[in-house]
Amino acid sequence: MTPPDPRRSSPAAFRNREPILAALQQHLPPHAEHLLEIASGTGEHAVFMAQALPRLVWQPSDPDAANRASIAAYREDSGLANLKAPIELDTTAAHWPIAACDAIFCANMVHIAPWQAALGLLAGAKRTLSPRGVLVLYGPYFEDGVPTAASNLAFDADLRARNPAWGIRRLADIAAAAAGFDAPQRVAMPANNLCLVFVRNGL
Asked: In terms of CB atoms within 10 Å, which of 22, 29, 83, 111 comes out highest?
């Protein structure tokens, strides 16, 4: 009997990958050689980005075993030399299974996880990134003084109904919790999303 295909698919990954790639190409530091992706999900972003950014060693990670199996299957199919095998990583852990990197990318995690996961991500990024390394977060955020799209309000209500610990975060709260980083650069993205670019300040 043929074993089931472990590869998962996310329609959103296909919709947003080109704009995210453009943001990464613009904001990743020239010296970047190693990038850690947090919460890689299906692995489709990892393959697409690693192929488009061959100068980077792309390290995917995910806390979920089924997602890691999907990432591994996509990686094997791709044959990309710069795409590493997925690792298990929980952002709230005091120690991550990677010593250092030049950039970290995380898409669509902080609103589909408890706030502690976002705090752990920021703390872990500070520990792991090299000076002037870059943390790039993609997803929806509430902004003070900026009208919120009706679709984001509905999405937030749906998330909180599914899990009260989930929900779209305020950009100001993320920025306030990002000790060790310069103020984030805000990059507008399609479908009422943002890329937030944090530069490790070396302090």
From this structure: 83
Angle (nearest 5°) at CA 56 between 27 and 115:
60
Q: Are 34 and 59 in contact (CB under 8 A)?
A: yes
Phi, psi of 84, deg, nearest 5: -85, 160
In this structure, the number of other CB atoms found within 10 A of the CB of residue 11 comes to: 8
- Paired strand residues for 36: 59, 104
Say how far apart CA 38 and CA 115 lie, in whole Å.
15
> Which 8-state DSSP code applies to residue 200?
B
Contacts of 79 (CB under 8 A, 6+ apart): none
Q: What is the pLDDT of residues 168-203, one digit of tens each?
A: 999 999 999 999 999 999 999 999 999 999 999 965
Pairing of strands 129-139, 193-199: antiparallel
- Position 89: which residue type? L
Contact 23, 198 (CB under 8 A): no
Q: How far is CA 128 from CA 27, 102, 133, 136, in A?
A: 18, 8, 9, 14
Q: What is the DSSP letter of 163?
A: -
Helix ranges (DSSP H) in the chain = 11-27, 44-52, 65-78, 115-128, 150-162, 171-177
Rounded to whole angstroms, the Cα distance separating 178 from 152 reads: 23
Asked whether the whole model's pTM tops 0.90, one would answer: yes
